User: Which sequence fits this backbone?
C-alpha cells in the first residue's frame, strides 16, 4: 500500500526511539523523508529530534497496528517486538522489514544457531540447556569454563555469563531464563561483517571491521579490520551476504564474528551474533563510507538500489562514548575543549541522560595512519567521559 | 543566558523553515541538539523534519521574542527579519547571531557596497539611484547596458535587472523599489569564498568554489574552483575572512565574487554579494568537506572551536535540483532509476512542493576526475527534473 508524504515519497516508520532511530532520521532527511518513530517515551533519543513521533508500546498490537497503518513500510531500532505481533501485522498486509521470519533469527539465539548450523555456517559448538545436568553434560565435551547465554533479550553483555563450574552454572539456571550453552572459544579477536539487502535481492557489503569489546560492550571499531587477508575478508562478506539471502533479511544485517586460531596455524571465522538493523559496528560509515548504514537501511527497506559502500579514507576508527561517573559534568564545556584539540574529530551525541557505562554517543576519526587515527578517537572518547586527557 | 536542553547542551533556534534550516537541523542532531525552528508554516521544509517547530511570523516582534526566549542563541535561515526587530531583541539581552549590525550588510546592498568600498574591498562601480536621470548620469560613466538591483529583498535573480537604455530603466524605476545601479562588469566567471567565524574571533575557510548560474539561479558549484591560482584563492579567502572580522559576522559568511579580466591581461576579483548564513554555494560541504557548512554554522554560533574544512575528495560538484514542468511526476520512481545508474551520487531533497524552477533539492558527486564528476551531477539533476537521461 503506497502511503506517501512530502514530494510524493514513501512514509517510513521505525519502531523504537533509540539512537539508531535518531541517526536513521538524520539520514532520512536527505532522502526527502521524515522518519516516523514509535517511541517508548517523548524523551527517547530519536523522539527528541524527529517530527513524527508516536509514544506507544512496542509490545501492544494495537499501538503497532495504528503506527504501521500510517507507514508504507515499518522497520526497527531493536529486536524486542514479539514475533507473534509481527506475524499478525503481516497477515493484515502491512509491510514490515525485516519480516518476522527473518527477524526471528536475531531475536532467538537458539533458533539462529540451529539455522546457521543447518546452513553449514560455522558457529561455536552450542546446545540448548535447561538444567545444571544438561550443562555438565555439555561441559564434558567442551570443558569449563563455558558460556551461557539467554536465548532472548540479551544485549551489550547482558544475558551472557561465563561460568567456571556447576555451582556457577546453577546460579544462572536459577534465574529461570531459557539458555543456550556455548563453548568458550579461544578467540583472537572479534570482527563484524555488515551488509544490506533489498527485497529485490540486491546486496551490498561494507569492508569487514574489527570490533573491540570491554566488559561485553563494544568500545571501538576499526575499519577496515587491520591485518585481515583479502581472502578472509571476502569470506566474511560472502557469509554475511549469503545469510542475508538465506534468511530473507531486508535492511542492514550485522554479523558479529569470532576470529579463532585454526588447527592449521592460521585462523578461521565463527558467527557469534546477528543483528537485523543498523548496528554499532557500522556507525563509522556515517563519515567513513560513501553511504552510511542509516541511509542504506532506508534504501533497502524502500527497495531503492543500494548505495556505494566505499571507504572515504584509508582508516576509520569509531569510539563509543560511554557515560562517566560524573553524570552532571558540563558536556558543553568538554566539547569546547575537545573541538579545540582535534578539529577533525566527528562527534555524535544521542541526547540521552548520562549514566555510568551507558552508550551516550560516539566519535569518529579518519585518516592515513591507523595508530594516529585510533589514538585520536580514544583520546576524544576518554576526555568526554572523564574530563582527562590520555597521556603518552 | 544559558538555556539548555538534552545532555545539558545549548538550545539553538533558527528563524525560517527553509532547506537551510532543514539541513542545519540534520547537522544539529550529531551535536546532541535538536534545532528549534520558527517557521512560516507547518509544511515548511524544516518544519517537516524537526521536533521543535513554532509557526509564527518572522516580522512580528512578539513571535520573535517568544521564540528567542526559549533559545540560548538564535540564528537565521534567511535575511528577512527587519533590523529594527533584531535590535529590539538584542537590547533585551537575547543572543542573536549574526547580530543586527552585521546582518545589515546582507540585508541592504547599498549599505554593503558603501561599507566594502570604505574598507578598500573591490566592488563593481555602483551608485544609489532614485530617478531615470540618476541612472542616465551613471550610464554616462559606465555605459549601457548596466545593472539595477533592488537594495533589499532580492534573491535568486529576483530584484536584479539588466537595462539597455533609459526607457528600460524607467520601467524598473516605476516599480518603486529602492535601487542601486552597478556597472555590468565583463565577468569571466563567478566564484564564492565561504568562511565561518565564531564570537571569539576564530575563522575557518573552505576552498574557494566556482558557481555556475543560469537565469540568475545557481545551478552548479565546483569545489575547488578549477584553474584558480593558489594566490588568487588565498586572496579570496583572505578577503572573506577579513570581511567576517570587519563586519563582526558570527556564523557562516558566503562572499559571492566576480572574476573579471584585468587590464594587465590577468584577472581580478570583485565582491558581488554577501550572505550571512549557510549558503547554496557550500551545500557540497555535506559530503565534500570534513565539516559541513551546517555543522560549522552551529559550531560558530555556539562559539565552539571550528571544524576541519579539508576536502574529502579532489573534486566535488553540487548540482541544484530545480522543479520540472511535470510537478506530479513520480519522484520515487525516478529515485529508483537514478540510484541504479549511479550508486555513489548523494541526493538531498527538501520536502518542498515541486514548482517549475524552484530549488527542491541538490545532488553531490565527488571523485578524482573533474569532468566525470561534473557529468554525474549534471546527468542526475537533469534526470530527476525531466525523467530524461542526458546523452553524450
Assistant:
Amino acid at each position: 500500500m503506497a502511503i506517501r508524504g512530502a514530494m510524493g515519497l514513501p512514509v517510513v516508520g521505525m519502531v523504537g526511539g533509540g539512537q539508531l532511530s535518531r541517526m536513521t532520521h538524520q539520514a532520512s532527511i536527505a532522502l526527502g523523508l521524515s522518519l516516523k518513530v514509535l517511541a517508548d517515551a517523548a524523551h527517547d533519543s530519536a523522539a527528541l529530534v524527529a517530527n513524527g513521533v508516536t509514544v506507544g508500546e512496542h509490545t501492544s498490537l494495537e499501538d503497532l497496528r495504528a503506527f504501521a497503518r500510517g507507514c508504507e513500510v515499518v522497520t526497527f531500532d531493536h529486536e524486542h517486538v514479539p514475533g507473534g505481533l509481527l506475524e499478525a501485522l503481516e497477515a493484515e498486509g502491512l509491510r514490515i522489514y525485516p519480516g518476522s521470519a527473518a527477524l526471528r533469527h536475531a531475536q532467538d539465539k537458539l533458533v539462529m544457531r540451529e539455522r546457521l548450523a543447518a546452513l553449514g555456517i560455522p558457529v561455536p559448538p552450542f546446545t540448548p540447556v535447561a538444567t545444571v545436568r544438561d550443562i555438565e553434560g555439555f561441559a564434558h565435551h567442551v570443558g569449563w569454563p563455558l558460556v551461557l547465554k539467554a536465548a532472548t533479550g540479551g544485549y551489550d553483555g547482558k544475558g551472557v555469563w561465563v561460568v567456571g563450574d556447576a555451582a556457577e552454572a546453577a546460579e544462572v539456571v536459577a534465574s529461570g531464563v531459557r539458555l543456550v550453552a556455548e563453548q568458550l572459544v579461544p578467540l583472537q579477536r572479534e570482527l563484524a561483517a555488515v551488509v544490506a539487502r533489498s527485497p529485490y535481492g540486491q546486496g551490498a557489503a561494507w569492508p569487514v571491521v574489527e570490533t573491540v569489546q570491554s566488559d561485553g560492550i563494544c568500545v571501538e571499531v576499526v575499519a577496515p579490520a587491520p591485518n585481515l587477508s583479502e581472502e578472509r575478508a571476502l569470506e566474511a562478506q560472502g557469509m554475511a551476504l549469503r545469510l542475508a539471502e538465506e534468511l530473507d533479511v531486508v535492511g542492514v544485517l550485522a554479523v558479529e564474528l569470532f576470529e579463532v586460531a585454526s588447527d592449521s596455524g592460521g585462523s578461521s571465522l565463527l558467527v557469534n551474533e546477528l543483528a537485523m538493523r543498523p548496528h554499532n559496528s557500522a556507525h563509522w560509515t556515517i563519515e567513513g563510507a560513501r553511504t552510511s548504514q542509516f541511509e542504506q537501511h532506508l534504501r533497502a527497506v524502500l527497495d531503492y538500489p543500494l548505495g556505494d559502500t566505499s571507504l572515504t579514507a584509508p582508516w576509520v576508527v569509531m569510539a563509543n562514548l560511554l557515560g562517566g561517573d560524573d553524570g552532571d559534568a558540563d558536556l558543553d564545556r568538554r566539547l569546547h575543549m575537545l573541538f579545540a584539540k582535534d578539529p577533525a574529530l566527528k562527534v555524535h551525541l544521542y541526547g540521552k541522560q548520562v549514566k555510568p557505562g551507558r552508550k551516550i554517543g560516539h566519535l569518529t576519526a579518519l585518516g592515513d595512519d591507523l595508530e594516529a587515527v585510533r589514538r585520536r578517537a580514544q583520546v576524544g572518547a576518554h576526555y568526554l567521559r572523564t574530563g582527562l586527557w590520555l597521556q603518552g
